[in-house]
């Protein structure tokens, strides 16, 4: 037998001893006669076979045993609370409150670990008009409310000064319920995670009109890659709900010359709400 074969067999037996001890069994060494003879020549066989068996750990006494659960039991003692099942849009047991609660505990994407607050949306539960934006910004993330920064103030002015409505009369929300870092454009994975919440919100509210603010909102709802400029100025159909596309208030702050076009879009929304034009669908 070569030195390599001898070494391999001894190592295998040592591994077996370790495995048996890990299972609480007494160590047992089984070597071939050739290996035993070779070890005997080296003066190691006698020590190997005559060594007393490793002591088996005694069971803990009543004085030292933990009166509580075992370590494994402690690890699994906390009840596992499953995430609430996501309901289908329009489910009778669904509600805006339930959706907001689910949003508050959502960690479907990485934004869940970066947010300060979730921003599910706010407004009248049976609002006739819903504004849908892109995503929360820094102020919204800090306060947990949609459109409360400079862009939010402009939207509030459009609603209250232009449309002569109270902000609380409409419902305002975003496609994303958490702020993307540095207010970047939402990526497709984030939209895919958040869109079901938005669809359920719209199914609960059943608005007369939806106004999509900016490209992300319009593209998400209408399943298109078209630009805002090509989508505005006409009515779109969102599950038999008339939808109007206009510029996002944040864009209007950067491009105030486009406010005229936005006001044209808002006037069409008002005409439909007031019954001055027939429903397009």
Give the topology.
Blueprint: H1 3-22, H2 33-41, H3 45-50, H4 71-75, H5 96-104, E1 122-123, E2 129-133, H6 138-143, H7 150-162, E3 171-174, H8 188-205, E4 209-213, H9 215-222, H10 228-231, E5 235-238, E6 241-246, H11 249-254, H12 259-273
Parallel strand pairs: 2-3, 2-4, 4-6
Antiparallel strand pairs: 1-3, 5-6
Structure overview:
- This protein has 281 residues and is an alpha/beta fold.
- It folds into two domains: 3-66, no CATH class; 96-273, Uracil-DNA Glycosylase, subunit E.
- The chain is built from twelve helices and six strands.
- It has helices at 3-22, 33-41, 45-50, 71-75, 96-104, 138-143, 150-162, 188-205, 215-222, 228-231, 249-254, 259-273; strands at residues 122-123, 129-133, 171-174, 209-213, 235-238, 241-246.
- The chain has a six-stranded mixed sheet with strand order 1-3-2-4-6-5, with helices on both faces.
- Strand 5 (235-238) and strand 6 (241-246) form a beta hairpin.
- The longest helix has 20 residues, at 3-22.
- The radius of gyration is 34 Å and the shape is elongated.
CATH homologous superfamily designation of the largest domain: Uracil-DNA glycosylase-like domain
- What is the 3D form? elongated
Task: Count the beta strands.
Answer: 6
Describe the biggest sheet? 6 strands, mixed
Order of helices and strands: HHHHHEEHHEHEHHEEHH
Low-confidence stretches: 44-49, 62-82
Compute the number of structural domains: 2
Proportion in helices? 40-55%
Instruction: Kindly provide the radius of gyration, computed on alpha-carbon positions and rounded to a whole number of angstroms.
Output: 34 Å
Strand order across the largest sheet: 1-3-2-4-6-5
Distance N to C terminus? 90 Å
The CATH class label of the largest domain is: Alpha Beta
Q: Structural class per helix/strand content? A: alpha/beta
